[in-house]
Amino acid sequence: MNRRHFLQASLVGAAALLPFSGFSLTQQKEFKMGLQLYTVRDDMASDPIATLKAVKAMGYEDFEVYGFNEEKGTFYGYKPSEFKAILDDLGLTVSSGHYGFAPYLDKPVDELKRFVDKCIAGAQAINSAYITWPVIAPEQRTLDNLKRMTGLLNAIGEQVNAAGLGFAYHNQSFAFEKYNGKSGYDIIINETDPELVKLQMDMYWVMRAAEKTPKQLVDEQPGRYVMWHLKDMDKISQDYTEMGNGSIDYADILPSPVKSGLEYYYLEQGGNFAQSPLQSVATSAEYFKRHLQKYL
């Protein structure tokens, strides 16, 4: 066991002895308030710089990108070096990205490897720590494809880790559907190497579709949930909504960040905006800072 893993294991063990309400993450690490930029995707498409300035003013400092253009090798229309310069000028960072792996589930492995190389080059250029697999298409959600995906996740994780980056899998609701009595998520977790494939927990989908709570998931895979997605659930429709307007009591359901292995978290809202995406992320930021940031 190397020194980094020894320290992580020690922190996880210590955290297990403490109730969540008994400590603050600031005792372990100061986290930047993060935002998944998919939330403001239309604004980023029309004016990335103005959008980044606007969300910075709300208190967001760190981001997860979405929409890497593999053909052009660009983020939001900018070459990675140009996008990094914009981030640097604004004092902002990108710690992870959701990349379009789903089409490569049905393509030759060599094509996938070339795509991963492009993702690695882009992530390195913007100084991003993680590359994340976010979703597969509805028509791909079969037991055979889930089993094939676990092999690909391991292979991608090995390729990404060899480049000095981390690789993670992000859960959606379909992962908790049962296949021959076993959830797809259990298949993914149990058949991937925890050293190569970390986990990004989307707590909205866990609360909406899983049989286990976020705390139970962390208890089963301590140290592996290196990233969280935080978004609220409409009390009636169960659609997305602004933080504080929905039914998820995050003060109650948040796992121990230390036991989780948390490195980054991102607020997100995929749609169902009360007014506009920018107004929604502002509302979520204000609620989060008042009620939840003390835990992070």
UniProtKB/TrEMBL annotation:
Q: What name does UniProt use for this protein?
A: Sugar phosphate isomerase/epimerase
Query: From the Swiss-Prot or TrEMBL record, what is one GO molecular function term?
Result: isomerase activity
- Spell out the Pfam families in the cross-references: AP_endonuc_2 (PF01261)
Its keywords, alphabetically, are: Isomerase
Q: Upper lineage ranks?
A: Bacteria, Pseudomonadati, Pseudomonadota, Gammaproteobacteria, Alteromonadales
Which InterPro entries does this entry report, sorted A to Z? IolE/XylAMocC-like (IPR050312), Xyl_isomerase-like_sf (IPR036237), Xyl_isomerase-like_TIM-brl (IPR013022)
Xylose isomerase-like TIM barrel domain spans which residues?
A: 52-254
